[in-house]
Design goal:
The structure is a single chain. This protein has 8 helices and 20 strands. The chain is elongated, with a radius of gyration of 22 Å. It folds into 3 domains: 21-80 and 220-242, Pseudouridine synthase; 83-211, Pseudouridine synthase; 250-303, PUA domain (Archaeosine Trna-guanine Transglycosylase, Chain: A, domain 4), CATH 2.30.130.10. It is of the alpha+beta class and 309 residues long. It has helices at residues 33-44, 74-78, 114-122, 145-150, 193-203, 229-234, 242-249, 257-264, and strands at residues 5-7, 14-16, 21-27, 49-52, 60-67, 82-90, 92-94, 103-106, 126-130, 139-140, 143-144, 160-175, 178-187, 208-218, 221-222, 240-241, 252-254, 277-281, 287-293, 298-303. The strands form 5 sheets. Strands 3, 4, 5, 6, 9, 12, 13, 14, 15 and 16 form a 10-stranded mixed sheet that branches. The chain has a 4-stranded mixed sheet with strand order 17-18-19-20, sandwiched between helices. A two-stranded antiparallel ribbon has the order 1-2.
Length: 309
């Protein structure tokens, strides 16, 4: 029950507040990711709420929200691959590289063929160096790039390596002198879809910006399991418990009772030979910590159920 006293799984103490876990939200357009966090704080009755991977106000779709101790794993989820559906308008550039900005220039794109558009999209697949959007949250001299850009300052950002696993044209529609191109994108963390729209338009010599953006997947979490804010207002419930989220997102290592106590007290274990971060799981199925193997001993990434809990 949200906001009620519960019997903690780690002992007999009664703990006030909701159970820890993840909520997969289908963010609506017109609200910020922080707005969603604020709404979830009220619905779940706790201040301990965060999200993995910011969506712009105009964007919709999958926003992974962490409740209570699940906020500790959000940084790891942010680093996972993501998928999007989007619409790029060719023939128009804006100050923000999306539909929320002011139009800077309009150039007829009526002459573009489907083959030319496909070629420009194909050139951005694979491992590329991408210059982030000028209105990104990247810090420049201690200030966010978007803040400087909105103050009228010129923002120059260095290109960053990203991986575009999928960039497919679904449809191209002629609208007056513009071409609206529906695409699907599968990419590494840190990829800016607005920048893809900008770069496709630049390659074709007509400019471009993003008019629609919907995130369809973050790692293993997809739209098929996402809940709207209205759904949550009717019944605030987790999509995954903390244990379910960890075991879905990371490989599992089963611990002995002795290893469980060592992990809860922050003591390193013998490596398990597992690549990357993994869920160290007690004999009763509770995830005690996320660990990573070092050359000789394990390293604690985050201890979810320390002995002091």
């Amino acid at each position: 029950m949200v906001g009620a006293q519960r019997r903690d799984a780690d002992g007999d103490r009664a703990v006030s507040g909701p159970d820890p876990g993840l909520v997969i939200v289908d963010k609506p357009a017109g609200v910020t990711s922080h707005d969603v966090v604020g709404r979830c704080r009220r619905l779940f009755g706790t201040r301990k709420v965060g999200h993995a991977g910011t969506l712009d106000p105009m964007a919709t779709g999958v926003l992974v929200v962490g409740i209570e101790r699940a906020t500790k794993i959000l940084g790891l989820l942010t680093a996972t691959d993501k998928s999007y559906s989007a619409t790029i308008r060719l023939g128009q550039t804006t100050t923000t590289e999306d539909a929320e900005g002011e139009v800077l220039q309009s150039v007829s794109a009526a002459h573009l063929t489907d083959e030319q558009i496909e070629s420009a999209v194909a050139a951005l697949r694979g491992d590329i160096e991408q210059v982030p959007s000028a209105v990104s949250a990247i810090k420049v001299g201690g200030q966010r790039a978007y803040k400087l850009a909105r103050e009228g300052q010129t923002v120059e950002l260095a290109a960053r390596p990203v991986r575009i696993d999928r960039f497919e044209v679904l449809a191209a529609r002629r609208v007056d002198d513009f071409v609206d191109v529906d695409v699907e994108v599968g990419c590494s963390s840190g990829t800016y879809i607005r920048a893809l729209a900008r770069d496709v338009g630049a390659a074709l010599g007509v400019g471009g910006h993003l008019t629609v953006l919907r995130r369809t997947r973050v790692g293993r979490y997809g739209l098929d399991e996402a809940r709207t804010l209205d759904d949550l207002a009717e019944r605030a419930r987790l999509s995954y418990s903390l244990d379910e989220a960890c075991l879905l997102g990371f490989p599992r290592r089963d611990l002995s009772a002795e290893e469980t106590e060592d992990t809860r007290h922050g003591r390193a274990l013998t490596p398990a030979g597992i690549d990357g971060v993994y869920a160290a799981t007690a004999p009763d199925g509770r995830v005690i910590a996320l660990l990573e193997d070092g050359p000789k001993r394990t390293k604690g990434v985050v201890v979810l159920r320390p002995a002091t809990l």
